[in-house]
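Minutes, project check-in
Item: structure for the 290-residue chain
Input as provided by the requester:
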Amino acid sequence: MTHATPIRRDARTDHLTLALRLGTLGLPVLPLRAGKGPVGNCRTCADNACGGRPNMKTPGPCACPRPCHAWAAATTDSTVLTSPAWSTAWRVAGVVGYHPGGAGVTVVDLDDAAAVAWARAALPPTRTVATTRGEHWIYSGTMRSVNGVRPGVDIKSLMSYARWLGPGTGTLAELPDVVRTLAAKKPTTARPVPRAVTVPALVGGGQCRHRSPAYLERGIAMAEQRITDAPSAIHATVYRTFLAVLSAHGRCGCLTEAHIARLFTAAQAKGESPRHCTDAWSNAQAALGM
């Protein structure tokens, strides 16, 4: 991650100029609102109509030619940044954000003085950027993003974004194991790899009709094919397919680790990340009350 001299941001009209400059330095950028939430860069996704996570921090099942908001939209492509579809977004943007993971870095976001004091005692020195309440410590290397790894400390890297606050000071250091360990200790309900589903037994202990190998195999194969054949809206297709599989097979104990792994593999072959797969599976379970 290479920075040039500090770039002035005196008015909102400067946001696109700043974004284009950062793009030439290898930072994938995106427009953020004054409250730091992503801006929907097309009319279809305005006001989070495509169903992303709250504040559009995670992209929804967008049907646009490419993801147009949140971290997945961050780009260095000047053609995209200056396109008509993005013009409104830059007019309403309050700040410029970037995707740390896309730039090959990890940001340790220290939200207050106590967190900064902890970092100075526990972490190796690296490039630092002052924020309104604390500091960003930036390391070379990427990892999964996790919020709340300790009081006042978030980790922003892959599948996340950070506000651009200037190039900072100090020499960029390699991402240390102590930061990776913080993320590993953070409890999470999302499974990093496919897991077998724990489901309730049939009421009355009846015979499971899905224990016919052919019946279950046909259902899993059809689900794999549905995902594989999807021409667009992959997020939505994966979720709906997972929902259908769980609706048909999720309450009788038929699904195994191998079945779920096949579905996740099909989804990842279409470009879904492991995190998106686990989120879609968990959301489908929640929708069915499992």
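Outcome recorded: DSSP finds nine helices and nine strands in the chain.
No further action items on this chain.
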